[in-house]
Amino acid sequence: MAITELPALNEYDRAFIRKLIWNALREDIGDGDVTCNAILTGEENGAARAIAKSELVFAGGDVFRETFHQVDPHLTFTIRADEGQEVGPGTILAEISGSLKSILMAERTALNFLQRMCGIATATRAFVRAVAGTGARILDTRKTAPGLRFLDKYAVRIGGGQNHRFALYDGVLIKDNHIAAAGGITEAVRRARRGITHTLKIEVEVRNLTELEEALTAGADVIMLDNMSTGDMKTAVALTAGRVPLEASGNVTLDNVRTIAATGVNFISVGALTHSVLAADISLLIE
């Protein structure tokens, strides 16, 4: 898949990602690769393979390829894994051939993108699998690396999760600081309803059952249960009785996510999918 074919993105977004890759290469290469310039003539040709060193969910092959092609559009590039495919150690993910100088110049930036995206997809798949059969769905958050949100959230989808709002402009989420600034949940919801288009839903973060009842009365469309105990979550599900979707958030881990899902909440948001993800172990080896 070429970068111009990234799913669910318009051309402006695709152009942003191409520019993101260009900036990352500029950051790493600068005025030139002094090591390659000193050792290689530029005439050497060869091939390299990207190889998984651990189990992972593959994501970001198109970004990986685009990075190499921005350095040298003449490189031959073949992706050997499908997006979302689970692979084991030793699996060949991609093969590149052509100028060895170009391959070596693009290597680190390309791997940085691929390792992060595969790491996010792998972590997401683990959370999705942990709640299988409960009906709860795993969401990401806005806790992404600055500038990498398109790629981070794409990797979450590849891992089987769902995207929460993309940014501040496409969804209303009234949090504790908004509530404090407005003077309460009821007033915050009233102002939000007055100030937005009818096509946007209003989500309200609550910290306890009293705030939950106020949010329901105020007309919230979705309610986030922030750092509640599982006991309170169960009570919240019973009190809400399906009137609005409930999202659990705060300190979610692989160890407790199924317990949270068993309370009956509809969504579980996991900031760790993107804010502290472990990069997948992938090597690029010259043949």
Specify Rg, calculated over alpha carbons.
22 Å
Instruction: Indicate the low-confidence ranges by residue numbers.
Output: 1-7
* Mean model confidence by pLDDT: 95
> What share of residues is helical?
40-55%
CATH superfamily of the largest domain: Aldolase class I
Compute the number of structural domains: 2
CATH topology of the largest domain: TIM Barrel
Please give the alpha-carbon distance between the first and last residues: 25 Å
CATH class of the largest domain equals Alpha Beta
Q: Write the CATH architecture name of the largest domain.
A: Alpha-Beta Barrel
The oligomerization state is: single chain
Number of strands: 12
Helix count from the secondary structure assignment: 11
* Strand/helix succession: HHEEHEEEHEHEHHEHEHEHEHE
How many strands, what sense, and barrel or not for the largest sheet?
Answer: 6 strands, parallel
Briefly note the structural class of the backbone: alpha/beta
Task: Describe it.
This protein has 2 domains: 3-122 and 278-286, Quinolinate phosphoribosyl transferase, N-terminal domain (Aldehyde Oxidoreductase, domain 3); 130-275, Aldolase class I (TIM Barrel, Alpha-Beta Barrel), CATH 3.20.20. It has 11 helices and 12 strands. The protein has helices spanning 11-29, 34-39, 61-71, 100-130, 149-158, 176-182, 185-195, 209-218, 230-240, 257-261, 272-275; strands at 45-52, 56-57, 76-79, 86-87, 92-99, 137-139, 172-174, 202-206, 222-226, 246-249, 267-269, 282-286. It has a 6-stranded parallel beta sheet with strand order 6-11-10-9-8-7. A 4-stranded antiparallel beta sheet has the order 3-5-1-12, covered by helices on one side. A two-stranded antiparallel sheet has the order 2-4. It is elongated and about 70 Å long. Mean pLDDT is 95; it is low at 1-7.
